[in-house]
Structure formats: structure tokens, C-alpha cells
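As a warm-up, study this chain.
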Amino acid sequence: LGPVNVTVQARKQNKLRLRLSADATGAEIRRGQRVLKPAGRKWDMGLAGDLDHRTTGFDVGESWLQIASNRFTGYGALVSLRQLAGQLTDPNRGEIGQTLMSALARLDWRGEWEILDSPALLDLAAPADIPAELAKMQLAGPLTGRWFIHHGPATQVHATFHAGSEARFVLPGRFTQPSGVPLDLSLSVTIDPNSNNLTDLTVDLAAGPARLGIEGLELVLPGGRANGPVRIDGRFSAERIEDLLACVPGADSLRRGLAGAANGRVSLEADRQLRRLNLSANLKDTRIGLSPWFCKPAGQEGQLTVELLPLDGQLAPEAMTGVSRRTN
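Now compare it with the structure written out below.
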């Protein structure tokens, strides 16, 4: 509801050169009775590029989206608008997650963002679609980042996020950025165009000098309309465990009892609940002082193996069993 200023420029050469922009700052945007954007909140978007009418490929030289004080920019190429439209409108397309994975696998893109007002972004999603923890997210200071998608026989996606030492990022009960400590998160993954599974997933989280790395991870998604479990398998490493635990609310006692480094392998299956977890960790460089009967200095050999399974083997376990082994 309200004014929207739209600009369209088109020029035909070998390709159709388009420049589109829309400023809806003065408008109120609703979905049903819910206000997604109140009138007066900045909303400016646009793109410029060349459309090939023969292939419907679209080369975007410039794009931008500003919502409140959040700004996203990028450029790249979509292999075929016709194919994308066909996928999105196909009644037999299956789950939307699979459709989006397939769309990403046909995209070349580079972009950057700066987020200063996260509530303005959360307003755009239906409350039921936002995890409860994410809805309570608190962000003071800028969250910046960039990403690129490279289309090829296997599509590669890379993204980075940065919250400086002056920022404050909190997921209540889950994660807290320690005061004065910068955060950096890097994600890289390869999308298999045939299965849309994620392979060679690498995650690197740095909190000041502390680091948690996961590499060689494979994420297998349930296909089509199937309700099968998500399967994850990969290797992990952690440095300065005590400083990583400083990011976890309520982990003070655990932080006093664990320090140093560790590495190992983890695999799990999960749907709405955990169905299976296997973890093995090399604890040679870990200092443990959790109790008089469970302590070890760094440098002493140590191995931890954990397996969690449903008690009854059903898909939605209420309780889990665990087995751990440690060797000195």
C-alpha cells in the first residue's frame, strides 16, 4: 500500500539490455494481515544486465537491494530464466529445498552484504518459518560478508561472514560473541547437479585465536517428497577449546575442565530429532580436568569414541543410549 517508484530502461542490441529499479520506501508491504515492511522503511532494489532472447540466459552486471540499513549487492549470470521458471512452476517439483539447490547449481554469482538491522530482515519471513532461536537473534554492530557461486560440472559455493570486535552477536541460549572478540565464519561447498547433495563442505569458525574447522563434510538431503533423514559425515578439528566454549552460554564449568586442541570424525542422521550419532576424537593435545576420575594433561595419548542410537530403533526417539571409551 502506498507509492512505488519503478524505472524500466530497455535497449535492443544483439541482446536486450535492461535496467530495472524500484523504490518502495513510502509503501507498506503486507502479506495478508501481517506487515512485512512499514511505510517509511527503506526499500530500494534494482538490477542491470543483458538478456539473451535465444537462450534466456541473463548476464547481470549490477544488482542491489537495500532494506532498512541492510544492503546487498552482486553481479553474475543465470544460465536460463526459462529453466528456472519451469522448475518453480512445476507442480511435481518436489520439496522447495531441492528446487533451490537445483537453481543454485545453474547460477554464477558474486555478491557482498552489510547487515545492520536484522529485525527488518526477520520481518519478511513468516514466524512459523523462522527457528525460535533465530527469531531471538541480537545483533549490535555490522555483520558483513561476501559470497560467490561458480557454475560448472559441479557448482561451487563460498561465503564468508565477519562480525568485528566492536560488534555483538547473540543467539540466546545457543551462542554469544565474547566482548571484544572478532568472529569470522567461512563456508565452502560443492553442489552435485545430479543429486543436489552437498559435498566437500568446509566450515571454519574463528573467535579471536580460537578455531573450529569442519572439512570433507558430505550432506545428503532427502530426495523429492521423501521424508528420509539428513545424513552428515566429515572430519573436524578444534583449537583453543577453552576460548570456543566461551561462546557457549552456561558452559563455564566445562570451559574450566577442557582446554587445548582436538580432532576427529563425526557422522549423524537426523530428521526432526537425532537418529544416530557417531563421534571419534583424538584427545592427545587436549587438557581434561572434568572430575577427579576424568582428567588428563595435554600431550598424553587419549581417544574418545561416542555412539548414540535410539533405544527402540524408531524414527523419533525420546531417549538415547551412549557409549564412550577413553584410553591413556
